[in-house]
Amino acid sequence: SGRSYQHRRGWIVDRIRQLSSIFCIDVCAYAVMSNHYHLVLKIDLAAQQALSPFEVIERWTELFSGNPVAAKFLKGDSLSEGERIQLDTLISDWQERLGSISWFMRCLNEDIARKANREDGCKGVFWEGRFKSQALLDEQALLACMMYVDLNPIRAGIADSLQASDYTSIQERIEEVAEPATANISLKPLLQFDGAATAAEQSGIPFHFADYLELIDWTGRAVREDKYGFIACSRPKLLLELGISDDAWITS
Asked: For the whole model, what pTM was predicted?
């Protein structure tokens, strides 16, 4: 048609970040391509279980209209015994959903479908089918999946560097390191790299970001016969390219 739909990729990124702020779900990596997207998510069980009834209702009503009994509770009105039982059930259901990837994806895909249909002036199915998910059970699986996602534009041949990989988490992370002042502080940040050595200490992604950058840069330079693109060997190493000194990097 000669019409560009690239702005819809931005819709998806914005919605992912908005939902991460509402749900007890952290975003480890994302890549929004021209006709599909990839997400690596981590459920924050501790945060989900720590939500107060007020927080559960407040978060859920950012997504849905809520319930008259919940509205009375938020206003501080007294509740009958029956209303209290109903409220407890609602809170329990909503709290469980705030840690559910299925509900996260439903809120993401439905919102994008409605926007696209409004823009196109049509109705009906927008996505080809339901999302597919895979549990990542160890550090190697997490690392491989994050790298697969972050390298998607390069492997598809639509970007020649990590910095040019638009609508990806790796581009966002690199930009935040290069120019911290440009980070959007109103949004919940991507899950941080904490480099924890043991599961007991882990709160974020269990690698150091410098190590991840080095590995993804090296991986992206590998030439594969079954993939279109790769990072050209003539490009300088990523940390040198960003012009970050050792001391500045440690601080970051």
From this structure: 0.86
- CATH topology for 7-45+103-251? Alpha-Beta Plaits (3.30.70)
What is the separation, in whole angstroms, between the first and last Cα of the chain?
45
Q: Name the segment(s) of the chain with CATH classification 3.30.70.
A: 7-45+103-251
Ranges of the chain whose pLDDT falls below 50: none
Q: What is the pLDDT of residue 217?
A: 86
At residue 111, the pLDDT reads: 96
